[in-house]
Amino acid sequence: MRRLLAAVLTLLPCAVHAETVTFGLDWKAEAEYGGYYQAVATGIYAKHGLDVTVKQGGPQVNHTQLLLAGRLDYNISSNSFLALNFVKENIPFRTVASMFQKDPSVLIAHAGQGNDTFAALKGKPIMISSDTRVGWWNFLKARFGYTDAQIRPYTFNLAPFLSDKTAIQQGFLGSEPFSIKETAHEEPVVMLVADAGFTGYASLIATSDKRIRENPDQVKRFIEASIEGWYSYLNGDPAPGNALIKKENPEMTDALMAYGRESLKKHGILDSGDAAKDGIGAMAAARWAAFYASVRDQGIYPAGLDATKAYTLQFVNQKAGMGK
Questions:
Q1: Could you count the other beta carbons within 10 Å of the beta carbon of residue 297?
Q2: Burial, 282: exposed, middle or buried (Cβ in 10 Å; 0-12, 13-18, 19+)?
Q3: What stretches in the chain show pLDDT beneath 50?
Q4: What percent of the chain has pLDDT over 70?
Q5: What is the predicted pLDDT for the residue at 287?
Q6: CATH 3.40.190.10 spans which residues of the chain?
Q7: Domain 105-196, what fold?
Q8: Which of 78, 53, 80, 44 is nearest to 64 (CA)?
């Protein structure tokens, strides 16, 4: 009994002193966030002294605003444009890790219509969201000569695409292609924007400069635990994370989550490029500089913007979680 009591008392300080962290996603719970749910479900965050609540996003949720208002401690910034927006607007928040080395955004078309390359889509109507219009769409305009006259609204409803064989729309690698296969029983043409040369990071974790300055240890533990969660989800048994995802978002099926996870693995979304040697979450100053130069030359951002304020390398490139 004394030994049991001693063991319990030894564990209590960890539980009592676990720091509460609220983390916002940029979309609904799905395999593209599997590493975070895996870190919660398997106790990885707890092992790092953190009590993490993951809040899913959605079309009516603006977690960036909640982060800036202090209602979230960390959130997912979808792409590098959002990080540069912080700098442009002189907002004291920045990226502390980039979980996706490749942006999983895709353009999707029907097979057999001649719409199987990015170049072939020039001048043709394409359904995209308002966020995409101010994001990687600008890369496609500069790279392939697309124009805004091609834009048609995308409302995250597949019906317009499925009813028109000439339709082209945006999507995410691990979701819309699967739904199209399941619904229409056809294999769509899927073109990964990153494969066309888009170098922006994706699924970045952002937090405040104040937190980085005043509690760098928490930031370090949160990033390292998240990275460990991702290695566990990709290379181990994803069942614990998937169970939490389904609890949060009952629309997720086992088949869809398996497809999403396999898409991440097959295309090296998390562990390619610099992450192959420096670990998931890796970032490089040279890549940030090149990305800024490209979007500056497209007129999206002004000359003289200090892109180094968009990120910090303090918590990444340390091979955290590798081999686990």
A1: 11
A2: buried
A3: 1-15
A4: 95
A5: 97
A6: 2-102+200-310
A7: D-Maltodextrin-Binding Protein; domain 2 (3.40.190)
A8: 78
